[in-house]
Design a protein that fits this description.
375 residues; alpha/beta; Immunoglobulin-like; 2 domains; nine-stranded mixed β-sheet; six-stranded parallel β-sheet; binds 2-acetamido-2-deoxy-beta-D-glucopyranose; APP1_cat
Length: 375
């Protein structure tokens, strides 16, 4: 209902806002453009381990000046379904910012990564359907030993803006943690549309109690694992989610993989949680992670609201228990937590390779010796 009422109004706002602009293809980033550079994982080049590859992703869009039309339309749509924006108007505007962004194709994004000796070049950003998006493994040459490196988009000398992101460098060995976000590490209420709209568009994000401490503890017990957050949320929520992880989960920062959803899919803003494709998408992201780190072992953490049990079990069957070493599923009240569901999801996965936990269990999870093979 919410989505249906939000949709036409947002579309009108967007088409009013988007002015067609003549541009050359294979252009560099200019003062009329905005760039969103995503935090990215780095891994040793299989062809030459002295060389580092970064799975770099950027979104280039037309620079925006005024979001007033979009925000006012969204505010009216939310009011119509009983959600009063009140004094959260600037929060709403900030969260919606990228939903009003007009992606630009054919932009070449050049990125300098601190401590590495080669500039990364992302090839031209994509046309439809992933308008403005670019993702590629790029070589940054030899890098220093830092775990978190700062990447910065190279701009013309006249442009004093800064577009930066973190690059998390990790060897192809040891441990990693694959984690969902909504209702696993952050209270989102994906099962309740109105509450989801509120937590996504208006409220300050709230961590699931005990999870920041658990992840901080894992970051020690698993000896600096590569954390990678894999969420079904649209990439337009990246700045919001990234700020949340950086502040609430400062001991377990890592790249965040989100879905490419274009304006046509803006209903995905609140429908992402229930979209049928989310399992397939998440398995393909785990595939990507496996491609970078085939010799790492992963602890996968998710919850029972969406398809995490089914997803992690599918990944276990695809990549084996050496890679998918352990899966933990948070039991969320109101979701399908039946024995039958978990039995069907984890059919073929040994019982000592997964665990369903309640909120009361969270403090004791840190005592499980995952590094030693327990789960
Ligand atoms: C997003 O779009 C880019 C560019 O087309 C593509 O390479 C990438 O795989 C897409 N990501 C997802 C999660 O589909
Ligand atoms: C990046 O490299 C990894 C490992 O070689 C591979 O699995 C993955 O498909 C590559 N990704 C892209 C976007 O080329």
């Amino acid at each position: 209902m919410l989505v249906a009422s939000l949709l036409p109004i947002l579309f009108t706002a967007i088409s009013v806002q988007a002015q067609p602009v003549e541009r050359g293809i294979f252009d560099s980033v200019g003062v009329l453009d905005d760039v969103l550079l995503f935090d990215a994982p780095a891994f040793p080049d299989p062809a030459n381990p002295a060389n580092t590859l970064v799975g770099l992703q950027a979104f280039t869009s037309l620079r925006q000046i005024d979001l007033g039309v979009l925000t006012a339309a969204a505010q009216a749509a939310l009011k119509a379904i009983g959600l009063d924006v009140g004094d959260k108007i600037s929060t709403l505007e900030e969260r919606l910012r990228l939903f009003g962004a007009v992606g630009l194709p054919g932009k070449n994004v050049k990125v300098d990564v601190g401590g590495c000796n080669k500039q990364a070049q992302l090839p031209g950003t994509s046309g439809l359907p992933d308008l403005g998006m670019a993702l590629q493994n790029v070589s940054v040459g030899a890098c220093g030993s830092g775990k978190e490196l700062i990447a910065k988009v190279a701009l013309s000398r006249l442009d004093s803006r800064k577009f930066t992101a973190s690059v998390f460098s990790s060897p192809n060995s040891g441990f990693g943690v694959i984690s969902d976000i909504d209702d696993t590490v952050k209270i989102s209420n994906v099962l309740d549309k109105l509450a989801l709209a509120k937590s996504t568009l208006l409220d300050d994000p709230v961590p699931v109690a005990g999870m920041p401490e658990l992840y901080a503890s894992l970051s020690k017990s698993l000896n600096d694992p590569q954390f990678i957050y894999v969420s079904g949320s649209p990439f337009q929520l990246y700045p919001f989610l990234n700020n949340f992880i950086d502040s609430a989960y400062s001991a377990s920062k890592g790249p965040i993989y989100l879905q490419n959803l274009t304006l046509i899919d803006i209903e995905g803003l609140l429908d992402f949680a229930n979209s049928d494709g989310v399992q397939e998408y998440k398995v393909s992201m785990i595939d990507r992670i496996h491609g970078m780190y085939p010799n790492k072992k992963f602890l996968a953490v998710g919850d029972s609201t969406q398809k995490d049990p089914e997803t992690y079990a599918e990944a276990f069957k695809k990549f084996g228990g050496e890679f998918m070493a352990c899966s933990w599923i948070r039991r969320v009240e109101g979701a399908d937590n039946s024995d039958a569901r978990f039995a069907a999801a984890f059919e073929g996965v040994p019982a000592n390779k997964f665990r369903i936990f309640t909120d009361e269990d969270i403090p004791s999870l840190k005592n499980i010796d995952v590094a030693g093979g327990e789960c």
